[in-house]
Design a protein that fits this description.
Elements lengths: L4 E4 L12 H8 L13 H5 L3 H18 L6 H11 L1 E6 L6 H10 L6 E4 L6 H6 L4 E4 L2 H9 L4 E4 L12 E4 L2 H18 L1
Bound molecules: magnesium ion.
């Protein structure tokens, strides 16, 4: 079986997608529910200025990341995949979140080969650098951008990432599905080569 380079986003992909919602509702006096979140840009959903969200994130970002829950099955799937493939976490979080991120991943038993905190949503260059075989994302825009650059993407289904997908993006619902697809892809590459 070929050892794949699996690039994995963190927020909404291995964490539960609405980790910010309760605190943001309280802070901005909103009553949004997960099903109301139909766009990726949180400030638009809260009907606030982007700067106001940044202010909130500066105050509560570390806490939000620390207390966020893991997505169902993510830890087990990543542990399984780690034995056979390379696990690279690639997040738009800023460098100042490195310790918080590493500590969270360790606490939730998600082993890794590397972590990159890009401070930007542009992930194409990092995917190239890591020779990504499969990129796992929850952001529709990132998925399209990566697909356009020729990468294969698994998009984990959320209320905010609906919409048509190009051929090399596959919508998935669970981490066990992701695990199965990754192993099948590795098997296929071995059979072909
Ligand atoms: Mg994400």
């Amino acid at each position: 079986m070929k050892k794949l380079n699996l690039c994995i986003d963190i927020d909404g992909t291995v964490t539960e997608p609405y980790y910010w919602l309760d605190r943001a509702n309280r802070y901005f006096d909103r009553q949004l529910k997960p099903e109301d979140i139909t766009a990726y840009e949180i400030h638009k959903m809260l009907d606030i200025e982007e700067d106001d969200y940044h202010e909130f994130y500066d105050l509560y970002g570390k806490l939000l990341h620390r207390e966020s829950k893991a997505r169902f099955g993510a830890s087990e799937a990543i542990q399984g995949l780690y034995h056979r493939h390379r696990i690279h976490f690639v997040t738009a979080r800023e460098e100042r979140m490195r310790e918080t991120s590493i500590e969270w991943l360790a606490r939730h038993q998600m082993p890794m080969d590397s972590i990159s905190l890009l401070g930007s949503h542009y992930k194409v260059e990092k995917a190239r650098e890591l020779s990504s075989d499969l990129f796992i994302e929850d952001c529709h825009g990132n998925a399209l951008q990566l697909a356009q650059a020729g990468f294969e993407v698994l998009l984990i289904d959320c209320s905010y990432n609906k919409g048509p997908l190009p051929q090399n993006v596959t919508r998935v619902k669970t981490w066990s599905e992701i695990r199965m697809i990754a192993d099948m892809k590795a098997q296929l590459i071995k059979t072909v080569s």
